[in-house]
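STRUCTURE:
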C-alpha cells in the first residue's frame, strides 16, 4: 500500500464514528473515559462485549457482527490503515454493534476494566516462531495474564490459526498452567463437531490457506 493511500485511510479513520484512537497519554494516565464503560458509553447498551485481537482488515469482527447482532464486537489492531476496510464496511452496512480500536495489544489491560470483556478472539496471529520474538506471541503467559484480568469469570478465549506451531505452543502452555481447554482440534474443517461460528466465517487469507490444503487449527479455552 502506498504512503498516500495510507495517509488517506488514516484521515478517513479520524472521521469514522466506529473507530477509537486513544492517545498514549490517555492510555498511560488511566484517563480514558471508556475504560470500564465500553458497553454503556460507546455501544449504548449492555450486550456482551467480544474483542478480536490483531484484527487485521476487520473481516472476522465484521462477519461476527453480522452473524450475532445481539453482541458488541471490538476489533483491535495498531495498524489503522488495515482495519479501515472493516470500519468502512461496517458503516456502509449500518452495523452499529462493531467498532475498531487502534492500539497495541499489550496495552489492553490499561484500556478495559477487570471482568469487562465477555470473550476474546485471536485470529491468525503472527506465530513469532523465532525464540527472540516470544514476547510478541499473543498467547504467551504475559498476554494470557492480561486476558485473564479483563475477561469475565468463565469467559472464553478463541484461537484460530493456520500455524501448527502456534497451536501446539498454546496447548502446551495451557496444559502446563492447568487452564480449562474446552475444545481443541488441529484440523477444524476436517472435524464434523467443529463449532459453527469457527467454520462459517473465513477471512480472505484463510480461504487462500484452505485452497493450499493448509490445516486450520482452533482452541477454545478459559481460565480457572
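SEQUENCE:
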Amino acid at each position: 500500500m502506498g504512503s498516500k493511500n495510507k495517509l488517506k485511510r488514516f484521515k478517513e479513520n479520524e472521521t469514522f464514528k466506529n473507530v477509537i484512537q486513544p492517545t498514549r497519554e490517555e492510555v498511560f494516565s488511566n484517563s480514558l473515559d471508556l475504560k470500564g464503560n465500553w458497553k454503556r458509553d460507546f455501544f449504548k447498551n449492555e450486550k456482551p462485549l467480544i474483542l478480536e485481537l490483531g484484527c487485521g482488515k476487520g473481516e472476522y469482527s465484521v462477519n461476527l457482527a453480522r452473524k450475532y447482532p445481539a453482541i458488541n464486537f471490538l476489533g483491535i489492531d495498531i495498524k489503522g490503515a488495515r482495519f479501515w476496510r472493516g470500519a468502512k464496511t461496517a458503516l456502509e452496512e449500518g452495523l452499529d454493534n462493531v467498532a475498531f480500536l487502534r492500539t497495541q495489544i499489550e496495552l489492553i489491560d490499561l484500556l478495559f476494566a477487570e471482568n469487562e470483556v465477555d470473550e476474546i478472539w485471536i485470529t491468525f496471529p503472527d506465530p513469532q516462531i523465532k525464540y527472540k520474538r516470544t514476547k510478541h506471541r499473543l498467547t504467551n503467559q504475559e498476554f494470557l495474564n492480561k486476558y485473564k484480568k479483563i475477561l469475565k469469570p468463565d469467559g472464553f478465549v478463541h484461537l484460530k490459526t493456520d500455524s501448527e506451531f502456534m497451536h501446539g505452543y498454546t496447548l502446551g502452555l495451557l496444559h502446563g498452567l492447568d487452564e480449562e481447554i474446552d475444545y481443541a482440534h488441529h484440523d477444524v474443517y476436517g472435524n464434523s463437531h467443529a463449532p459453527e461460528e469457527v467454520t462459517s466465517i473465513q477471512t480472505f487469507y484463510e480461504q487462500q490457506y484452505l485452497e493450499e490444503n493448509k490445516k486450520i487449527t482452533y482452541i477454545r479455552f478459559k481460565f480457572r
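REMARK: The two ends are 43 Å apart (CA to CA).
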